[in-house]
Amino acid sequence: MQTLSLFLNFLIIVLAIKFSDAFTRNDFPDDFLFGAASSAYQWEGGVDEGGRTPSVWDTFSHSNSIGNGDIACDGYHKYKEDVKLMAEMGLEAFRFSISWTRLMPNGRGPINPKGLWFYKNFIKELRNHGIEPHVTIYHYDLPQTLEDEYGGWLNRKVIEDFTAFADVCFREFGDDVKLWTTINEATIFAIASYSDGFAPPGHCSPSKFINCSTGNSSTEPYIAGHNMLLAHASASKLYKLKYKSKQRGSIGLSIYAFGLSPYTNSTNDEIATQRAQDFLFGWMLKPLVFGDYPDVMKRILGPRLPIFSKEESKLVKGSSDFIGIIHYMSVYITNLTPNPSLLSTRKDFYTDMGVDMIYIGNFSLFEWEADPWGLEGVLEYIKQSYNNPPIYILENGKQMNHGSTLQDTSRVEYMQGYIGAVLNAIKNGSDTRGYFVWSMIDLYELLSGYKYSYGMYYVNFSDPGLKRSPKLSASWYTGFLNGTIDVASKDIIKLQSNISGSSSM
Ligand SMILES: *[C@@H]1O[C@H](CO)[C@@H](O)[C@H](O)[C@H]1NC(C)=O
Ligand SMILES: *[C@@H]1O[C@H](CO)[C@@H](O)[C@H](O)[C@H]1NC(C)=O
Ligand SMILES: *[C@@H]1O[C@H](CO)[C@@H](O)[C@H](O)[C@H]1NC(C)=O
Ligand SMILES: *[C@@H]1O[C@H](CO)[C@@H](O)[C@H](O)[C@H]1NC(C)=O
Ligand SMILES: *[C@@H]1O[C@H](CO)[C@@H](O)[C@H](O)[C@H]1NC(C)=O
Ligand SMILES: *[C@@H]1O[C@H](CO)[C@@H](O)[C@H](O)[C@H]1NC(C)=O
Ligand SMILES: *[C@@H]1O[C@H](CO)[C@@H](O)[C@H](O)[C@H]1NC(C)=O
Ligand SMILES: *[C@@H]1O[C@H](CO)[C@@H](O)[C@H](O)[C@H]1NC(C)=O
Questions:
Q1: Does pLDDT of 338 surpass 70?
Q2: Where does the secretion signal sit in this chain (predicted)?
Q3: Quick check: is 220 catalytic?
Q4: What domains sit in the chain, N to C, each tagged with a CATH number?
């Protein structure tokens, strides 16, 4: 899911998209994985079926008027149909998440046989069609019972419960699943949920723009982030001790990564950009690779930043076999210049980071510009600063108005640009091993419901049968993956005329 952190002090800039040189699937390594993604709450529906109980996401989506995932794409019933579409599309891999409360309705303890059966069948279906599953263990959907019982991610008890949930996933699905992401976009998850208050459980300090029922934006994001790192590391250790020698999979954490570049060439903006890299990437990457938080965060946050004990530091360091990257857009960074009329007065993650983020594109329409160099920059930065770890791009995609057209040419251009950026990074030594389009089909989106979507398949949400229809992007991806399409705009035009002749919405 794309989670936008709505920083309120922004300017708007429009960039012209430039295209990469021609390339094909065959320019990538054979074992590179091209796939597409989804998550449980956004795709499955069936929220009251088969013994599933509510997660914090159900509670949150029912408390606003944006829409909810009660039915979503009905993947819970339509998974066979969707796997067939994936196979026709030529997907090499599919990324999805396990609903914690479908598998363990009480958050801990007994396993729900119907939930187990659903995921086993789904994974078998993928395997039978030659599609590699990439499983996200946790995608924002904490059992509501654990939130109520002890405050979820703010309490260290979550580490034990998360590890026990992961244990069930490894034991039950690990013979067929070789790629595990513990926690989805942990960085922005902590920020959106505990600093902004935009995502469940919706905590924040009061401000001019939003009042949450509870929270503290200057402390909670760091506490939740700390517990996420420890929970990830604990699950990873368990995997390595108990399963890895037999199952031979790998396990990683994923972070949200804006493309970052200084707004001007002033020294102040360059320093601000380094600080933003440390807050947005280093916050999680430095502990995972080097065992501790970035110095600049320790200095600015003081006692608000939790401390790793020696043992915890050892546990976290080296716990991620790969880094998962969620990337959608770039921002320019400039040193924070408080604007009293706009800026919230509260202390939060962004005021701690001390930068203004300048979005590229029309933010009011949520139509940010494609900036493939931003992703190239992220991959290059991680290569150079964090010992070139293996990377999977776990989400990248283009949001458009839902149902506006099947001819999503700008989405195809976006995908071409970004896949080209990944190729450039690989050519320059980045160990990037996979790329997943967000999303396989139109989904329920946390911040926009059904208004905007990212799917390569259109879903008619007003149709009782939730009919799926391929967009231009689906045909383009198929052609790219089967090697018949070279990345050049004339191929898009040919596809475009084919789709307008053959498909109706
Ligand atoms: C947040 O916590 C800090 C540190 O404990 C405290 O100084 C501050 O008053 C709290 N802010 C809110 C809004 O509760
Ligand atoms: C939040 O609460 C504060 C203090 O009660 C108030 O000044 C502010 O206007 C509220 N903000 C919103 C968005 O309601
Ligand atoms: C920034 O760029 C301008 C215009 O290209 C140049 O004149 C100036 O010397 C540069 N400043 C720094 C600090 O590099
Ligand atoms: C952004 O979208 C708004 C709303 O439709 C429109 O008024 C504005 O002109 C657009 N700005 C740019 C830079 O395209
Ligand atoms: C390519 O990698 C080298 C060595 O890490 C680095 O110095 C250079 O800046 C990179 N080039 C680009 C375009 O990122
Ligand atoms: C969606 O489905 C409804 C109900 O079946 C139908 O009336 C409508 O035309 C469909 N919309 C599109 C864009 O296909
Ligand atoms: C390759 O993809 C193109 C474009 O979607 C499609 O027309 C063609 O049938 C596919 N070829 C094979 C061999 O799958
Ligand atoms: C368009 O359709 C024609 C006829 O069905 C097919 O030969 C051609 O390969 C298609 N073009 C693309 C780019 O898929």
A1: no
A2: 1-22
A3: no
A4: 12-502 (3.20.20.80)
